[in-house]
Specification:
A 5-stranded mixed sheet has the order 3-2-1-4-5, covered by helices on one side. β1 and β2 form a beta hairpin. It has 2 helices and 5 strands; from the N terminus they run αβββαββ.
Length: 70
């Protein structure tokens, strides 16, 4: 099942320092799915998206480094 999730891509929460917002993206997609003012809001939104579609997600720190995977 983990392989199936990887094939469909994953969601990512990344910080946009230019606009000072947390972005939710999906691997392979060009458009941003959503943006939030706080990291906590972005994580809550990505959790809901990933549960509805049974897709994993990765959260990055402000500096772009990996923080956690689910």
């Amino acid at each position: 099942m983990a392989e199936e999730k990887t094939k469909r891509g994953i969601y990512r929460v990344v910080y946009d320092s230019e606009n000072k917002r947390w972005l939710i993206k999906r691997d392979g997609a060009q458009r941003i799915i959503d943006s939030k003012m706080t990291k906590e809001e972005a994580i809550e939104r990505v959790k809901a998206l990933s549960q509805n579609q049974d897709i994993g997600f990765v959260v990055h720190k402000k500096d772009g480094k990996f923080q956690k995977k689910r």
